[in-house]
Amino acid sequence: MIYIYCDESCHLEKDKSDVMVLGAIGIDSRYLKVIYEDIRQIKINHGIDSWFEIKWTKVSKGKIDFYLELIEYFFNTASLSFRGVVATGKDKLDHSIYNGNDYDTWYYKMYYLLLDPFTLPNNSYRIFIDIKDSRGGKKVKKLHEVLCNNKYDFNKEIIEDIKQIHSHESEVLQLCDLFIGALSFFHRGLYSKSNSSEAKKAMVERIIEMSGCSLNYSTSRTESKFNLFIWQPRRSF
Predict the structure, then answer these.
(1) Across the strands, what pairs with 231?
(2) What's residue 237's pLDDT?
(3) Over 70: is that where the pLDDT of 163 sits?
(4) Range of 129's domain?
């Protein structure tokens, strides 16, 4: 059984961002307890409470060594894998042509692009998504339906369920928040600004270094450790 933890950044239609980032970290459920214990030990090693919630917004100069070690832990731990989708041009979407006048339809398409390559027919999966708003329950049910239908998984034997959880319930979900935060920081142009957080720049640089990915371009679809897809809207003429 593979557990997949998903998070999203700048996912609302009118949040004044032209970029939406979706991310997912997958892990064989047999290793989940060890991962939790390892991450909590990393916190303790840095003098941080073991229940401290890891978040991109908390990345700072004072805790940079801690956060960099988390990035290194991910890349050095074989049982963890990441896939991210960066959807650019979100503010220029023409839903009347491609998405049936509906932003939510596009949103589900992006989640499909995130999870479809991550869920293979020879495994079974449980998917956990960070709770964002009160409408999440209906979204999760629809997403489960879309993913299963596209895999002909009508008995839900591949994707067993999708549920919402709070980020404080899972260190793996918190780790996912770091990666989508870094991708959002990079693709919103904050990485190149001279007055941006040096700690967050260092996080982006460490991800680039350890992944071998520039973050500007999609990786191979079959990349298994750090998989990235950069989506751009189709031009309308």
Answers:
(1) 87
(2) 40
(3) yes
(4) 2-231
Number of domains in the chain: 1
Question: What CATH number is associated with residue 50?
Answer: 3.30.420.10
Phi, psi (rounded to 5 degrees) for 125: -140, 145
Phi, psi of 24 (to 5 degrees): -145, 135
Backbone region of residue 152 per phi and psi (left: phi > 0; alpha: psi in -120 to 50; beta: other values) = left
Average pLDDT in the chain: 88
For residue 164, the cross-strand partners are 129
What b/e sequence results for 30-59 when a residue is b if at least 16 CB atoms lie within 10 Å of its CB, and e otherwise?
A: eebeebeeebbebbeeeeeeeebebebebb
CB atoms under 10 Å from CB of 100, counted, come to 10
Does the global pTM surpass 0.85?
A: yes
Count of residues making up the chain: 237
In a domain, 236, yes or no: no
Neighbouring C-beta atoms of residue 210, cutoff 10 Å: 16
- What are the beta bridge partners of residue 24? 6, 83
Assess if residue 127 is contained within a domain: yes
Poorest-pLDDT segment among 88-97, 126-135, 226-235: 88-97
